Amino acid sequence: MEPVKKKYHYPADLKQDLLEKGIQLIREKGIDGLTLKSLAGSLGVTSAAMYHHYPDKTALFVAIVERRAVELYQQLNEKVVAVHKDDVAQLLIKSAEVFYDFCAENTEFLALIMGDAIRSWDEYPAINEKVQNVFGILEKAIVQGQQSGILRDGNPYNLMMVLFSGTLGMANIMFNSKTALPAQIVGDARQAFSDVIHGSLNMIRK
User: Fold this and answer.
1) 63-204: which CATH architecture?
2) Rounded to 10 degrees, what is the CA torsion of 115, 118, 124, 130?
3) What is the pLDDT, as a whole number, of residue 10?
């Protein structure tokens, strides 16, 4: 069945719909299953119209990651920083929880940042800026913890990586696995994640 063609009077509307449909197709078919031809066809637009906004798949992937990074930054500020700014330990734990839940809801974001679909991140300074904004929240909290004597001394970025590598690993196992996981692992995932983040925090405490 041919998709219903929609007339786009404003280029921004088409760009937004391409982004939304691209996210949907990645969730349904995976990164490798997405083609620009199928993306254009799903919206009933020409390839030329699509290429005007996204000349290749990497451009689309970059736009998705940039958007999700902005959303994650906003969630961290609203759900964590605004509530736990004076409690470093809780700020770091809740940040990890927000990240984990965000990846569960936005699996395409996790698949893109953990895979090789975007081969050279340095070519896209806009993405790096948005991602660094997220890391900046965490680094600032770690510096605050060091100054208050809660966390051990050392490079704040390195301590952040120690703390959140477990979070990222758990999210990758749960939401980016290409094989079905045993029911017990899925059922115990939240408790396992909680154990990982608390254990990681203990590793950087004084």
Assistant:
1) Orthogonal Bundle (1.10)
2) -30
3) 46
Asked if residue 134 lies in contact with residue 95, where contact means CB atoms within 8 angstroms, the answer is no
79-106: average pLDDT: 93
CA 149 – CA 205 distance, rounded (Å): 9
Domain boundaries, the chain: 11-53, 63-204
For residue 17, give the nearest of 26, 8, 4 by alpha carbon: 8
3-state secondary structure the chain: CCCCCCCCCCHHHHHHHHHHHHHHHHHHHCCCCCCHHHHHHHHCCCHHHHHHHCCCHHHHHHHHHHHHHHHHHHHHHHHHHHHHCCCHHHHHHHHHHHHHHHHHHCHHHHHHHHCCCCCCHHHCHHHHHHHHHHHHHHHHHHHHHHHCCCECCCCHHHHHHHHHHHHHHHHHHHHCCCCCCCHHHHHCHHHHHHHHHHHHHHHHEC
pTM: 0.87
* Confidence (pLDDT) at 187: 58
205 beta partners = 151
Written as six digits, the tokens of 177 are 């696995």
The CATH class of the 11-53 domain is mainly alpha
What does the mean pLDDT of the chain come to?
Answer: 87
pLDDT tens-digit series, residues 167-198:
888 888 878 766 555 555 555 777 888 888 99
